[in-house]
TrEMBL record:
It comes from the Bacteria. The keyword Ion transport applies. PROSITE patterns: ABC_TRANSPORTER_1, ABC_TRANSPORTER_2. This is Iron(III) transport system ATP-binding protein. Residues 13-245 form the ABC transporter domain. The keyword Iron applies. Signal peptide: none annotated. GO terms for biological process: quaternary ammonium group transport. CDD domains: ABC_Carb_Solutes_like. The lineage of its organism: Bacteria, Pseudomonadati, Pseudomonadota, Alphaproteobacteria, Hyphomicrobiales. It comes from Enterovirga rhinocerotis. Belongs to the ABC transporter superfamily. Transmembrane segments: none annotated.
Length: 364
């Protein structure tokens, strides 16, 4: 399995202005992305936004209506070429693993090695199986393995032919919550060792942040934002982008005199955050809202209280805000119906975005 990968450069994948129509529906609208070589790129977006379709286009299972796919600089789909999936040197791993139940682990992994001389297949499959730590289970059938082990067989099978690019569609979604994190981190170990250019599709923001070197946020068939996980978390381009990565409280306001004037007071904002007089949002991740001592902060009333184990989640109604703020409190928390005071702490969880649709120029 990809044992020779560290010696040669990892593959490159470029999607250039890909559009895809099914009948009259535009599913993908001029989507472009460059997957960094040897790294993990995550396609994140809600169900139905076109992630799987994009992956299928990269693999060659689906043809784009417009745009080009380039692997190692060669056009494999586009106006001048269409290379069949089996000739793209792309590995695919499906959500349900698609293992053959009647074949052993060894036979499943060797299945995709038809291009190799028969004598080599066994050794290459054995290396791939060893690479995912399953050597002792090589003669078992999928039905005799746990979900996590089956996932590793699928990974070994996808990597065995030493593809240039690995495409994974929701590779962890079939696993129990408890198992998912372990399998995720062992998968990442294998991918890093193989140094293979990988694209992973997920709808789970926590997973995207945990595994992605590069994140591409998709919404309704378009790229909303692309960058590192840290970038997207700290500097979302819109309220939708902020919400795609984690829960946020969205507080409306207007940029004025170096700050955003909101019902929680005027919060100092960097000058690039929004033009003077423009409408915007203060996006607050729950960790930056705190209970404040009497005489400081903004008054609010607790309208709901949910126990979450290590913390308590309070829903706090604040005058001037259309919906309650959600505030995570550790330790002793006040009760429903009580009046409290809230403060906005400094920190990365405090984000400003200008909102063109709410700015005065965009109104009637
Ligand atoms: N072959 C097809 N013919 C017609 N419509 C299709 C076809 N394949 C996908 N679609 C539609 O395209 C849209 C995007 O589907 P896609 O599977 O790419 O989304 P997704 O983001 O991967 O969603 P999920 O996370 O639910 O898998 C959906 O509305 C889907 O019904």
């Amino acid at each position: 399995m990809a044992s020779d990968a560290p010696q040669r450069a990892a593959g490159t994948l470029r999607l250039d202005a890909i559009s895809c129509r099914f009948g009259s529906r535009l599913i993908l609208d001029t989507v472009s992305l460059d997957a960094p070589s040897g790294r993990v790129t995550v396609l994140l977006g809600p169900s139905g936004c076109g992630k799987t379709t994009l992956l299928r286009i990269a693999a060659g299972i689906e043809r784009p209506s417009a745009g080009r796919v380039l692997i190692d600089g060669e056009e494999v789909a586009g106006p001048s070429a269409f290379v069949l999936p089996e000739h793209r040197r792309v590995g695919l791993m499906f959500q349900d693993y698609a293992l053959f139940p009647h074949l052993t682990v060894r036979e499943n992994v060797a299945f995709g090695l038809g291009a190799l001389p028969r004598a080599e297949r066994g050794a290459v499959a054995a290396r791939a199986i060893e690479g995912v730590g399953l050597a002792r289970l090589a003669d078992k059938r999928p039905g005799q393995l746990s979900g996590g082990e089956q996932q590793r067989v699928a990974l070994a099978r996808a990597l065995a032919p030493s593809p240039r690019i690995l495409l994974m569609d929701e590779p962890f979604s079939n696993l129990d919550r408890g198992l998912r994190e372990d399998v995720r981190s062992s998968t990442l170990d294998v991918l890093r060792r193989a140094a293979i250019t990988t694209i992973v599709v997920t709808h789970d923001p926590e997973e995207a942040l945990a595994i992605g070197d590069h994140l591409v946020l998709l919404g309704e068939g378009r790229v909303i934002q692309a960058g590192s996980a840290q970038d997207l978390y700290a500097r979302p381009v819109s309220l939708a982008a902020a919400r795609a990565l984690s829960e946020v409280n969205a507080v409306p306001g207007r940029f004025s005199n170096g700050g955003l004037a909101t019902p929680l007071g005027t919060i100092p904002a960097p000058s690039a955050a929004g033009a003077e007089g423009a409408d915007g949002w203060l996006c607050l991740r729950p960790e930056v809202l705190r209970l404040a001592p009497a005489g400081s902060g903004t008054e609010g009333r607790i309208v709901a209280k949910t126990f979450r184990g290590a913390s308590v989640l309070l829903s706090v109604a604040v005058k001037g805000l259309p919906s309650p703020l959600r505030v995570a409190v550790e330790g002793q928390a006040p009760d429903e119906g009580e009046t409290i005071r809230l403060a906005v702490a400094d920190g990365a969880g405090r984000i400003f975005v200008q909102d063109a649709s709410r700015s005065p120029a965009a109104k009637d």
